[in-house]
Amino acid sequence: MPSPKLRADQHLRVMVTAFAAVDPVGAEELAAATGISVKNCGLVPVFTMNTGLLTKGHRRATYLPSEKGRYVARAFARGEAEGLGALRSKWRGQWFARTVRERCRHGPVSREGLVITLMTVARAGRERIKQAHVLLDLMVAVGLVRVEKSGELHWFEGVCPTETPLTGGQSTDAPREGSPAADAHDEPGPAEEPPALEDRASGGTRQPDGKEPQDGSGQQQTEVPRPRAEAPGGQAPEGTGSDQDLLSLLLPPVLLADLTRLTPAEVLELHNHLTAITALTTKLRGPRIS
Q1: CB atoms within 10 A of CB 43
Q2: Residue 145 belongs to what H/E stretch?
Q3: Which of 136, 75, 143, 89 is nearest to 109 (CA)?
Q4: Segments of the chain with pLDDT less than 50
Q5: Alpha helix positions (H), the chain
Q6: How would you classify the pairing of strands 54-56 and 63-65?
Q7: What's the rounded Cα separation, in Å, for the pair 205 and 196?
């Protein structure tokens, strides 16, 4: 998570400066270009490297933009709104963005609730609570999150009003206030992050044209696989064998009547296996900690 010693707008100024670098830059070069102290400029690159936008330079404590970082820099050169859109596209797949998007799935959430969620996912202690607040402020400034009139935060990815541009001036707001920066609609880039895990996990229920199946009222419906049929005489359907694809065995739902074929010991064994698969899959599909 980002350092709590800088406000969100200062973090962004240092990052944008680093993205535009042609030669390796260190804290001194970033300080000279942004007017922020050398010590604080040195706190920004670690978080930025963890998001894949900076890489280490050939000299000690120096950094260079990655291909993603250069893409963001080119967008900022065309305008701040376009640059913020490019930065959103690179952050959308990061663990903190996925966490907030999932937490806000059903509507706005209090800042405290989002902070606790971020700290839980990052496995951070309470001593890092200020870092979580700055991380939220950064997402507000970039335009991934919007502050509602109620003070709650909501996943947004859209236009946010601003009073102070990123590239000039200093905001008087404390990091907790999360002063939003100017933004515009998201522009897709050539190096977009891969789709979120929850989007990939829904594969197999989409129509060939990419649209979800709908009922007569226009509501989306989830397509449930049909139960595996039995051949006459209680034999397995033709083509079913020990070498059959595992997914074809797991996807059809198991009905309550199917369990009557198992002994009590086999039912308990099935339960233990499914519990283990669920736990491991949850860990594999969970957000990656940067």
Answers
A1: 19
A2: strand 145-147
A3: 136
A4: 159-165, 167-232, 234, 236-237, 239-244
A5: 8-19, 27-34, 38-41, 45-50, 67-78, 80-91, 95-103, 111-122, 129-142, 197-200, 246-250, 264-285
A6: antiparallel
A7: 16
- Distance of alpha carbon 180 from alpha carbon 12, whole angstroms: 12
Query: Cα separation of 82 and 266, whole Å?
Result: 59
Q: What is the spatial distance between Cα 157 and Cα 92, in angstroms, rounded to a whole number? A: 9
State the residue for tokens 């397995």: 236
- Tokens 């260079």 correspond to 64
pTM recorded for the entire structure = 0.54
Three-state secondary structure call for residue 64:
strand
pLDDT in tens, 155-198: 986 544 343 345 443 333 333 333 333 333 333 333 333 434 34
52: its two tokens = 């894949």
Q: Phi then psi for 267, rounded to 5 degrees?
A: -65, -45
Instruction: Look up tokens 């120096």; give the residue.
Output: 62
